[in-house]
C-alpha cells in the first residue's frame, strides 16, 4: 500500500468517524448528568433541612406546652429528659439529636425583659456556658429555645453545617397542684 493510499484511507476513516453520531447521546449525557444529579441532590438536601427545622419547631412547641401546664415542674423532668422528649418528635430525621440539641429555657418577669442573654459568642456560635434550664413558676413568662446542629452531606457551598433553631414564648398557667406527670414526648 502506497503512502498516498494510506492517506486516502485515513481520510475516509476520519470522515466516517466525523459523520457517525451513534455515541453523541452518551457523551452529552455524561456532560449533563453530573451537574444535574448534584443539583437534584442539593434540592433534596435543602428540603430535608427545612423539614428538620419544622420538626424541631413542632417538637419545641408541643413539649413547651408541658412546661406551660406545669407537668415538667411537677414531674421533676430534667433538662436531659426534656431534650430527649423534643428529640422524640424527630424520629430519625434529626440524627444524634440528644448530642446535637442545645436548650435554653428562661423565665422573665415581663415581656420587655426578654433578651438574647449573651447566648452567642462574638463569632456567632452558640455559647453553651450561658444556656440555662429554668421552667419557672405559675404565671411566669417562659422562653424555650432549641438549637440543633444540622450537618450537610455535600458541603457544597463551603458550609458543612448550619444551626437550626426554634423558639416558643408563653405565660405559664396557674398550675398549683398540677397533675398529669407526663414523662414522654408530647409528640406521641
Q: What does the secondary structure layout of this molecule look like, with pairings?
A:
Elements: H1 3-19, H2 24-68, H3 71-74, H4 79-87, H5 97-100, E1 101-108, E2 141-151, E3 161-171
Antiparallel strand pairs: 1-2, 2-3
Write the element-wise H/E pattern from the N-terminal end onward.
HHHHHEEE
Q: Assign an overall shape.
A: rod-shaped
Largest sheet: 3 strands, antiparallel
**Mind telling me the C-alpha Rg?**
29 Å
- Strand residue percentage: 15-25%
Structural class, from secondary structure content? Answer: alpha+beta
Considering DSSP H and I runs of 4 or more, what fraction of the residues is helical?
A: 40-55%
- Describe the strand arrangement of the main beta sheet, using strand numbers: 1-2-3
Number of helices: 5
Number of strands: 3
Mean pLDDT: 84
Task: Show unreliable segments.
Answer: none
Distance between the termini: 85 Å
Task: Characterise the protein shown here.
The protein is α+β, with helices and mostly antiparallel strands. It contains 5 helices and 3 strands. The protein has helices spanning 3-19, 24-68, 71-74, 79-87, 97-100, and strands spanning 101-108, 141-151, 161-171. It has a 3-stranded antiparallel beta sheet. The longest helix has 45 residues, at 24-68. The model has no long low-confidence stretch (mean pLDDT 84).
Amino acid at each position: 500500500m502506497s503512502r498516498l493510499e494510506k492517506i486516502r484511507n485515513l481520510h475516509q476513516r476520519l470522515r466516517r468517524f466525523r459523520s457517525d453520531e451513534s455515541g453523541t447521546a452518551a457523551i452529552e449525557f455524561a456532560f449533563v448528568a453530573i451537574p444535574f444529579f448534584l443539583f437534584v441532590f442539593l434540592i433534596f438536601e435543602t428540603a430535608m433541612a427545612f423539614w428538620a427545622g419544622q420538626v424541631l419547631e413542632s417538637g419545641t412547641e408541643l413539649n413547651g406546652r408541658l412546661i406551660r401546664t406545669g407537668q415538667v415542674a411537677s414531674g421533676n423532668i430534667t433538662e436531659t429528659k426534656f431534650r430527649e422528649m423534643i428529640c422524640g418528635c424527630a424520629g430519625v430525621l434529626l440524627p444524634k439529636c440528644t448530642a446535637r440539641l442545645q436548650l435554653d429555657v428562661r423565665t422573665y418577669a415581663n415581656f420587655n425583659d426578654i433578651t438574647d442573654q449573651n447566648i452567642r459568642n462574638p463569632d456567632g456560635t452558640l455559647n453553651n456556658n450561658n444556656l440555662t434550664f429554668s421552667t419557672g413558676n405559675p404565671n411566669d413568662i417562659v422562653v424555650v429555645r432549641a438549637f440543633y446542629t444540622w450537618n450537610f452531606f455535600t458541603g457544597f457551598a463551603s458550609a458543612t453545617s448550619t444551626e437550626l433553631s426554634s423558639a416558643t414564648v408563653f405565660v405559664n398557667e396557674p398550675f398549683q397542684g398540677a397533675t398529669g406527670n407526663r414523662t414522654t414526648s408530647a409528640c406521641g
